[in-house]
Amino acid sequence: MRLIHPRVDDVSVDVAYDLTDRPRREDRPWVVMSMISTADGAVSLEGNSSLLGGPTDREVFLHLHRSADSVLVGAETVRQDVYTPLAAHQVLVVVSKTGDLGRNATALTVAGNTRIVGGDVRDIVLDLPGRLCVLEGGPSLNAQMLTADLVDEICLTIAPRFVSGASQRIAAGPLALREPWDLAHIATDDGFVFLRYLRASSGN
After folding, report:
1. pTM of the model
2. What are 114-167's pLDDT values in tens digits?
């Protein structure tokens, strides 16, 4: 991965996305949104976001995913991307109205560290364990979290694809806060652009 902002350097994914210093908020974990989109804004191909990525994006996703104490995700994303159980020390929190987790439902529920929740995201985040939560979509959940001002950091991969179609943006729903975010880094690899943003008020 080639870092081009704030300095020019070849760095590993582990270094570029080191989250060890992220502090827990007073009443909730630090929340990092992890998403990918095409250059024209689509968040999936054939309903599956993993089809957009390349090897480095997959490495970024897995690094963030494995760094989290909790992973917060919508049920539609769990079904489309076929989630598997997390490591025993992590908690998968799935926001769902129906409890349908798709083809891996049994494995996820038997694992013992999957929670199915519903309701207002403001209440959901209060019960998230640990210091760091990674938010993995989908667009509706992302919009709810942004509107409630519950996202501290956004790690966004731009894939070098232009696919048109009717795919949603990374956040779709109620209007979120419109203040600009701080650009923490820009990196590139094999045509992909890796962006990391921090809330301007975060001080990190």
Report:
1. 0.94
2. 999 999 999 999 999 999 999 999 999 999 999 999 999 999 999 999 988 877
Name the residue ranges covered by the structural domains of the chain: 30-176
What tokens appear for 154 in the block?
């956004």
| Chain CA centroid to CA 77, Å | 11
Q: Sort strands 114-117 and 91-95 into parallel, antiparallel or unpaired.
A: parallel
Residue 76 tokens, joined: 């539609």
Alpha-helical segments (H) within 17-166:
55-67, 75-81, 105-110, 121-124, 139-147
> Exposed e or buried b for every residue in 1-34, given b needs 16+ CB within 10 A?
bebeeeeeeeeebeebbebeebeeeeebbbbbbb
CATH node for 30-176: 3.40.430.10
